[in-house]
Specification:
The complex is a heterodimer of chains A (219) and B (114). With 219 residues, chain A is an alpha/beta fold. Helix content of chain A is 37%, strand content 23%. The chains are: A alpha/beta (219), B alpha+beta (114).
Chain lengths: 219, 114
C-alpha cells in the first residue's frame, strides 16, 4: 500500500540544531564567537593575524581554522600569539556545525574571551551552514572586483558585518565603490562595513573597536 | 557545491520518517527548493543514486519543486520577481528590497510502501 507522509522538515535542520547547541556552549563559557567568511585570498588569515596582534594584551583569543588541507593558517594564528585549532575538512567546501562542535570539545573555553572561526575560502557554501557563532563576518577585497555582491547574494545577505580589505590597492585596480556599495545595501541594508588594509593598517582601528565592544558586552 | 552533505541530510530525514511509519520502501521524495538556495538538482540526483543504494530509499524518485524568487520593494511596496542581472525594483528603480520567497529548502513529503 502506498502512503504519503507529510514531512515538512528543513533539509539542514540537523546542522541548525547543532549550531544552536554550539551557541549554548559559547554562552555557558561566556565566550563570543565570530564566523569569518570570504573567498580564497581575500585576507581572512591576515585580518585574524592583525586582530590577534593588536588585541594580544586585552582579549584572550582562540582561532578555529577550517581548510580543505594543511595547517598553514592555524600555524600563522599561533605564531601571532593565539591558541589555534585546525580543522581539515577533507574536501568539504565549508565548515559545518558538527565540525565546530568537535573542535570545541578539544578546547578549554574558560581560557578565552572570544573565538574566531576562519571558514573555508568560498563565497557560496559557508553561507548555508550555521555554525552557532554570535556574529558572521564577510571579508571582501578590492582585487576581487566590485560585482561580487551581485554574483554571490547568499553570502552578502547573511552576514552581520562586512570588511572591505586591501583598500591600499584602490588606485591600481578598477573598482567602483559606489556600485559595490549599492549591491551590498540592496542585499543587506544598513550593514556595518569596515574598509581597511591589513597591509598598511589603515582602517583597522574601527574593526578592532567593533570586535572589542562585542566581546566586552556580555549580554 | 555542497550537494553531498545536502543529499546525506535528505537521506537521513527520509529514512527517519519512513522508519517511524514502518515503511518497506520509499518511492517518492518531494523537495521544495527556492531559486536563491544554491542547490543544483542534477548534482543532488547524482549523489542520491549512489548513497541511497541498499537503503529503504533505493530507487526513490526525487521530485524538485522550485519556488521563484519574489521581492518586495521597501521604497514603493511593489512586489516583483527580479530579472537575471538586477535585483532593483522595475517600478521605482529602488534597491532596498525584502525577500518574500526563494530561500526555501525543505522536504515536503515522502511516498512510502507499507
Amino acid at each position: 500500500m502506498t502512503n504519503k507522509i507529510l514531512v515538512v522538515e528543513k533539509i539542514l535542520s540537523a546542522n541548525d540544531r547543532i549550531a544552536v547547541e554550539n551557541q549554548s556552549i559559547f554562552n555557558a563559557a561566556g565566550v563570543k564567537s565570530f564566523n569569518i567568511m570570504a573567498s580564497p585570498g581575500a585576507g581572512k588569515t591576515s585580518l585574524i593575524e592583525q586582530t590577534i596582534k593588536i588585541l594580544l594584551n586585552t582579549i584572550k583569543l582562540a582561532v578555529i581554522d577550517g581548510d580543505i588541507a594543511t595547517n598553514i593558517d592555524a600555524d600563522r594564528a599561533q605564531a601571532a600569539g593565539a591558541f589555534a585549532v585546525q580543522i581539515n575538512t577533507g574536501g568539504e567546501c565549508h565548515l559545518d556545525a558538527v565540525m565546530i562542535n568537535s573542535a570545541l570539545k578539544q578546547m578549554n573555553l574558560d581560557l578565552f574571551d572570544a573565538i574566531i572561526i576562519e571558514n573555508v575560502g568560498n563565497l557560496v557554501c559557508p553561507a548555508s551552514f550555521q555554525l552557532g557563532s554570535h556574529k558572521s563576518v564577510l571579508i571582501a577585497s578590492i582585487p576581487e572586483g566590485d560585482d561580487k555582491p551581485y554574483k554571490y547574494p547568499g553570502m552578502y545577505r547573511g552576514v552581520d558585518a562586512l570588511v572591505i580589505n586591501k583598500i591600499d590597492l584602490l588606485p591600481y585596480v578598477p573598482f567602483n565603490m559606489d556600485y559595490f556599495r549599492k549591491g551590498v545595501e540592496t542585499l543587506n541594508p544598513g550593514i556595518v562595513t569596515f574598509p581597511l588594509s591589513c597591509k598598511t593598517g589603515e582602517g583597522l582601528e574601527n574593526w578592532i573597536k567593533w570586535i572589542t565592544e562585542i566581546v566586552r558586552n556580555q549580554n | 557545491m555542497h550537494e553531498l552533505s545536502v543529499t546525506e541530510s535528505i537521506l537521513e530525514i527520509s529514512l527517519r520518517h519512513a522508519n517511524n511509519s514502518n515503511a518497506k520502501s520509499i518511492t517518492n521524495i518531494y523537495l521544495v527548493i527556492g531559486q536563491l538556495a544554491s542547490i543544483i538538482d542534477d548534482s543532488v540526483q547524482f549523489y542520491w543514486d549512489i548513497i541511497s543504494k541498499g537503503t529503504l530509499a533505493d530507487g526513490a524518485v526525487l521530485n524538485f519543486r522550485r519556488i521563484p524568487t519574489t521581492l518586495a520593494c521597501l521604497d514603493c511596496n511593489n512586489q516583483y520577481s527580479p530579472g537575471d542581472d538586477s535585483l532593483d525594483c522595475p517600478k521605482c528603480k529602488g534597491h532596498h528590497v525584502k525577500i518574500l520567497s526563494g530561500e526555501e529548502f525543505y522536504m515536503e513529503a515522502i511516498d512510502i510502501e507499507t
